[in-house]
Amino acid sequence: MVEIVQATRRHPLQAGQLDVASVSVTLADNATRVSLRAKDNTVSALSKALGITLPMKPKTSASNGGRAALWLGPDEWLIIDDADSGVIADLAKVKVLHSAVDISHRNVGIIVAGKGAAAVVNGGCPQDLSLKAFPVGAASRTVLGKIEIVLWRTGEDAFRVECWRSFSNYAYAFLQESARDVAI
Amino acid sequence: MSTSTHSGSNRIPGAGRLTPAKTVRFTFDGQSLTGLEGDTLASALLANGIHLVGRSFKYHRPRGILSAGSEEPNALVDIERDKSRKQPNVRATVQEIYDGLKVKSQNRWPSLTFDVGAINDVFSPMLPAGFYYKTFMWPKFAWKTIYEPKIRAAAGLGVVPDEPDTDRYSNRFAHCDLLVVGAGAAGLTAALSAASTGASVIICDEQAEPGGALRYESDVIIDGLPGFEWAVAAIEKLRAMDNVTVLTRTTAFGYYAQNFVGLVERISDHLSNPVSDMPRERLWQIRATKVVLATGAIERQMVFANNDRPGVMLASAARIFLNQYGVAIGRKVGVYTSNDSAYAAAIDLKRAGIDVPVIVDTRDNPTPAVVDAARSLDIEVLTGHAVFSAGGKRRVSSISIQPTRGGSERKVAVDALIMSGGWTPSVHLFSQSRGKVAWDAANERFLPGTYAQECVSIGACNGTDGLQATLDEAFAAGGGKGKAIVATGGTNWIGGMIGSAPGAGADTTVKAFVDFQNDVTAKDVRLAVREGMHSIEHVKRFTTNGMATDQGKTSNLHGLAIAAEALNRPIPAVGLTTFRAPFTPVTFGAIVNHARHDLFDPTRRTPIHGWHQTQGAAFEDVGQWKRAWYYPQAGEDMHTAVNRECVAVRNQAGIFDASTLGKIEVVGPDSAKFLELLYTNPWEKLGVGRLRYGIMLREDGFIYDDGVVGRLAEDRFHVTTTTGGAPRVMHHMEDYLQTEFPHLDVWLTSTTEQWAVIAVQGPKAREIIAPLVEGIDMSNEAMPHMSVREGTICGVPTRLFRMSFTGETGYEINVPSDYGRAVWEAVYERGKPLGLTPYGTEAMHILRAEKGYIIVGQDTDGTVTPQDAGLTWAIGKNKTDYVGIRGLLRRDLVANGRKQLVGLKTVDPTTVLEEGAQIVANPNQPVPMTMIGHVTSSYWSENCGRSIALALVIDGSKRLGETLYVPMPNGVIEVEVTSTVFFDEKGERLNG
């Protein structure tokens, strides 16, 4: 009989030290992520199940505790929650028409925080990140250098960058490079 | 800082704004010199009495410093920090000096004062404009072998660095309500006005100091302050505001669509020891709601004989060198002008104690006030006179003066000459914005006419004369409330002349330079007209006027006027060339910025990549992915390693990283209907837990992609695509869903990177995996070939596919990516004693070819139908619709004579064909032979003990058993046409 050894998680990135004091680029904790797709007429039922009123406007998000829903398209949200959350189970109970796909391992989260965080992201992201155009809570699928990201402003000087796993080394290196420039 | 306090013999005590104690040491052609902090290289050289800075491009004439700004055509030098950080063609008027700066002159050999290439000046009658086009026409062969190599060796300015640039460069995107280009009186006023309304403002200026013309205008008072002091106070006020970004040493070089403006900020070029993280330059890509152009005007030279002699410079430049840097450009300075502005320069010089023997003015009746002012300082003013020629060679030593209407010549000794042909409004960025310029006939200048974007020009670049009028215009442009500030003094931008000055001489042999950098003279332009060039575009290309790196900032209008005069046509009828980006040269480093080394392009690695590395795998690039290619063991070459891997898979089992396969989760009640429309195969009746190989076509009926699709639930499918096809297949599906089939309730989510995929293939595959799996009955009966089950492996969730791309019993274990490495290692540890062998993409290619499984993109090329590829079985016979169904019925797609996929066996089994090799029916036919097909895949197959190949051959399926030929450089290879399956033809091993 072969003994089954429990497989352990391995994050694609090794946290690196950034020798910059004013702004930090760090790896987000493991998270549960769901790509949620649904039509307008099911939004209220899904909102109820999630405990979040799903946002309906471009560049917006809604959150409740550790759980957040980012508007990505007219029928598309990125749900982010703690790694051990029951968000997938919550959605499985919903009877209305929708698509929920677990993408927890597809994405990697990177946190940019501190003075000049917006400028760090603007090193590779062409969006207007002024507080007027991209206030706290704003979220958008956009680009960073040569890759696609989801950008979410979690504070005046804090952003969460979500990208696909195999692009995370690029995103992490890019943001660190940009942080060095901003800290000059 | 060095200890010397001597910063040049031409430094005038009390003049300028630099601090005498702050000295800086630098070298020029090895000579150690001292300047002051804040000096440009030009001002520091002039302070040390050095005018001769370089040699010209074509004639190698001695050249000095013409200007004090970015329009400089002459003073180009080579700057070297170290071997990898060399920069040719740096303008001495832009480069600031720092301790340890090393400068070399260019385009001279063996030395700047004695230059062999200057022989070109002597032979210049043999080198007229357009000489390239004529001289090197004959004999024809000589162009490639003699002329071009020689010209290329002799041509060019400066030397390209031969090591990779080690400097850093960065990038910043930014948005603002108002972008102000230029921080002179106009730009600063507009920025202050806009900032007071709360608007977000970015203001940039190419100089280190703000002020523009205020840096040298000695008579300006704004808001009660001397001009420059006001400018410094204004920029400090702007810097302190949260809604304003001030960028000095920053050039707006490109004005693109929708108010997108490119800026380059020079961050460390002026520093002796930049800190290590500091980028050399930063590219700013700015989207502005409104752009204010306050780019000023550029002074023109006078066009007369030997106007290029070192020591001959623009009047405004002399004023900057004096009033900003405290440097006298000479001790005895002549003045040659055709407008009022040079008088102010003459007066400033005279007041600083410099001898100004004469002002030569081409006008018969200049403005009385300026003439009186000069005469009151005992400066002789000669009206209606012209400077016919400058004497001296490496430095101007005299000027020859004559009345413009002819008369006796008078020679005046000078050691410098300042000149002003008038002012050309800097409409470069306006023109780049696709604005149309308009000809101001009264003042002989092009001004902004029709605007194409949300943009406004103010001040000198808009032809606005008078400082108060400029400030009023600027204040309004900024949108501020209240009134503009009050100002007096300032330069009169109007007047002057364009074209040859009197006495530059029609059809003489004198060199009266129009374009200094490209060595274009007035007679060259006239020659171009005589040769039949009637448009300025043709004149420009014939003479190269305006085509150097300065893009003709001082020469364009002169060249145009001379051509128009020779053509006897009005200037607008001859035309003005369009200005293009960049305004001044931009480094490749700034354009590339972060995209170097690891950030040049993303490198995608699978979750198991690190393990492959520890095993010494060789990797191959597949798009942006790194894939394990093969795993050489000690002493193995690629061939041996791949053979070993292929044999192991068929005899025991192999383990393969298939994580890069594209994956799409298709969810919704209409999922099966949607797949019916996207694939040739039927899907409605595919049972839950079953897999099917699917073919996807384009509308034209040709194969687009293929892959295995699993049904996880009635309303949920797990679709796989080729590695390279993943993004485009996703877009293809989404495109059809949104535009053709929006009525279907179905959603697509890319899950490529959610799942790590571990393929275990071979007779022992089940034996290896089964003990690690829980919740799935893996028996052949319960989980046959082409089925999918969900359960756990090593305690983590898996989607276990039973499928094969090798022809062996096989599984593809999908686990969430972060678990990929651990599960792979557990499977490998479990399988190793049973002979489990890791295999790479090369072995995978061979194993699938042994079974005749196609690779889309290798065995297909976008012109292959399922029938051509022998995949007719994958088309649902009863289907009435899918993408490509009508394409497949096209006459040429069903006709005979199409290329079809076949197998090829070389008659000599050890010969391996070359992929891409052409196939003929008769090798004895004359060349060019009729080619009937080509090899698409070809390998040595250790399992078959011979070479195998796949090929697309005309009517291939009817040729089984035929002998065909592959002509190669070393002889003809004989091949037999066979089935595409070379191993286990009955496919029994799949179900083991």
From TrEMBL, chain A:
InterPro entries: SoxG (IPR007375), SoxG_het (IPR006280), TrmE/GcvT-like (IPR027266). Keywords: Oxidoreductase. GO terms for biological process: sarcosine catabolic process. It comes from the Bacteria. Its EC number is 1.5.3.1. Pfam families: SoxG. It is an enzyme of class 1 (oxidoreductase). This is Sarcosine oxidase subunit gamma. SUPFAM superfamilies: Folate-binding domain (SSF103025). GO terms for molecular function: sarcosine oxidase activity.
TrEMBL record, chain B:
Residues 177-439 form the FAD/NAD(P)-binding domain. One of its GO terms (biological process) is tetrahydrofolate metabolic process. SUPFAM superfamilies: Aminomethyltransferase beta-barrel domain (SSF101790), FAD/NAD(P)-binding domain (SSF51905), Folate-binding domain (SSF103025). The keyword Cell division does not apply. Residues 608-879 form the GCVT N-terminal domain. Residues 899-984 form the Aminomethyltransferase C-terminal domain. GO terms for molecular function: sarcosine oxidase activity. Its EC number is 1.5.3.1. Residues 511-591 form the SoxA A3 domain. It holds the Pfam family Pyr_redox_2. Keywords: Oxidoreductase. InterPro entries: 2Fe-2S-bd_N, BFD-like_2Fe2S-bd_dom_sf, FAD/NAD-bd_sf, FAD/NAD-binding_dom, GcvT/YgfZ/DmdA, GcvT/YgfZ_C, GcvT_C, GCVT_N. It is an enzyme of class 1 (oxidoreductase). PANTHER family: AMINOMETHYLTRANSFERASE (PTHR43757), AMINOMETHYLTRANSFERASE, MITOCHONDRIAL (PTHR43757:SF2). Belongs to the GcvT family. This is Sarcosine oxidase subunit alpha. It comes from Phyllobacterium trifolii. The lineage of its organism: Bacteria, Pseudomonadati, Pseudomonadota, Alphaproteobacteria, Hyphomicrobiales.
